[in-house]
Amino acid sequence: MTKIYGNMIKLAIQKDGRLTAETLDFLWKAGLDFEVSKQRLLSTCRNFPLEIYFIRDDDIPNYIGSKIVDLGIIGQNILFEKRPKVKKLLNLRYCFCSLVVAVPKDSNIKTVSDLNSLRVATSYPESAKIFFDKYNLKVSIVTINGSVEIAPNLGFADAIVDLSSSGSTLAMQELRVVSNIFDSEAVLIADPLYLKSPKSGLVEQLISRFKSVLSAKQYKLVIINSAQNILPKLYKFFPYLKRNQLSKSVNIQTVIKEDLLWESIPRLKKLGVKDIYILPIEKIIS
Ligand code: ATP
Ligand code: MG
């Protein structure tokens, strides 16, 4: 049954696009329990005071600006392009891509400087303009909303500025990259004044869940079987081993319902608990 919470945080994510699947996966990994309906307008979390709104990604900064939602997850490229008045709270380490300048494989253009007085098609006119201005190049920017990569083949641009992750779309259109403008990834954003909102405590709790997923992604728990006498030699390979040994801390293992664990974390931290590793259980036989 869904708990009824008084003060809900509202988080906007992309309704249907490249960010959607990975964002949902990230939120589920953070232990948030919600379902996604077919209409995808709004989902309410069962175990955290959170409502998830499904919106077009370009509109998310405006929803934050108008205070309709508190938080959003978008590609950092939108922050560079539109410079909305929002604060980036966290890099989420997925949906990596780069904004690149690409030209037809067999074109004479070798470097960005060769683009002077040529036409460039893009859905990112501001980012492209800033980039070409930096090189003092007079480039005619043609703004189009989709399928930018076919513009050179159709003959209405000499080059493109577009997002690319694996490069496979560019390769399919026989384009090659001449320059990388910036790298992007999914980011969590909020109103710049969110800390003053009565919901800021809840936002901090959500951020701490997100950080726990990000840290877990970087580390593996290893169980090493070794003779006692070589233990000091292992310290140089495993920095955390030394810390644990020297501080004489003990590792305890126990089972707890995940929701209860999340509720207890602030108090456990206050008590002086250091690292908490959360692992899934395959089966329980009691
Ligand atoms: P919407 O209908 O929500 O406005 P959209 O068409 O603007 O969607 P998508 O193509 O779904 O947007 O891309 C959303 C985000 O996914 C981009 O802003 C970017 O941050 C990220 N992304 C990751 N890889 C790529 C890629 N190879 N090409 C384009 N975007 C990518
Ligand atoms: Mg969009």
From TrEMBL:
It is found in: Cytoplasm. Feedback inhibited by histidine. It catalyses: 1-(5-phospho-beta-D-ribosyl)-ATP + diphosphate = 5-phospho-alpha-D-ribose 1-diphosphate + ATP. Residues 56-211 form the ATP phosphoribosyltransferase catalytic domain. GO terms for biological process: L-histidine biosynthetic process. GO terms for molecular function: ATP binding; ATP phosphoribosyltransferase activity; magnesium ion binding. Pathway: Amino-acid biosynthesis; L-histidine biosynthesis; L-histidine from 5-phospho-alpha-D-ribose 1-diphosphate: step 1/9. Its main location: cytoplasm. Catalyzes the condensation of ATP and 5-phosphoribose 1-diphosphate to form N'-(5'-phosphoribosyl)-ATP (PR-ATP). Has a crucial role in the pathway because the rate of histidine biosynthesis seems to be controlled primarily by regulation of HisG enzymatic activity. This is ATP phosphoribosyltransferase. It comes from Candidatus Gottesmanbacteria bacterium CG11_big_fil_rev_8_21_14_0_20_37_11.
